[in-house]
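Moderator note: this is an archived Q&A kept for reference. The question asked for a predicted structure of one protein chain; the sequence and the answer are reproduced below.
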Amino acid sequence: MKITEMVNDKRLNIGLPSNYIITLIVYLLALIAAELLTTYVNKIWGLSLHTIILFALLVNASMVESPDFANLLRSLMPIPIIRVVGLSIPMMQIQPLYWFPIVAIPLFAASIILMRNQGLSLKDVGMTLGGNIKLQALIAATGFFSGIIEFFILKPAPLIEQFTPALLIGAFFILLISTGLAEELLFRGILQTNVTKMFGTVFALLYTSLVFTTMHIGWIYFSDLVFVFSVAMFYGYCLIKTKSLVGVTVAHGISNSMLFLVMPFVNLAAFGIF
């Protein structure tokens, strides 16, 4: 193990205030509460709590003494923004497929701002091949299996009206960029990187995966949350080992394409239902 990795793994034990960890846990619990309110109680209440979390992160980041922890808190800020924007889209009467790029636009903007303000290069956030193209291709291929598995958990309706090459290819690139790239850049590339700087790889992997899973509470099924957490752990582990997000970004895009574009029509052909 490299010396820098050993230092990262031991940071929890060499003087970091415990209230930093408590603060992160409180924000995680607040995000869970906001998602539960949005899904099961009242969307307005959930939206209000997400807005409160956003402003709390902004104020908190400006008050903490540690620059690294301030950067970490700012890295959490786009997450409530995702939900605030996402909850507003149905009111615009836009087709569900186009919800994804609309949410991705502020996500990309926030990620770019965070990278510039924190001095993070493309290499720092995993935007490199990691020196092993074959391994990245194997990681990407896992998206086929994860998408099929998640389909049989959720069985969503297709995001395209017909199963044609033009619609399929266009929708694939929308999902690849809007979910694969946008979400992996924020969650794994920026958030996991910032948590790792302060608390080491193990805590960063667990915390980032839990935050990512929290944003899927709206799908209702507990089995899907377990599955999403497992996939998030796998993606985070791939970043740790390969220092690259290329494989997991493509895997994420393929997985969502199988889930929302391919499998609904396969299910229709096999069983006569979406």
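Archived answer notes: The mean pLDDT is 90.
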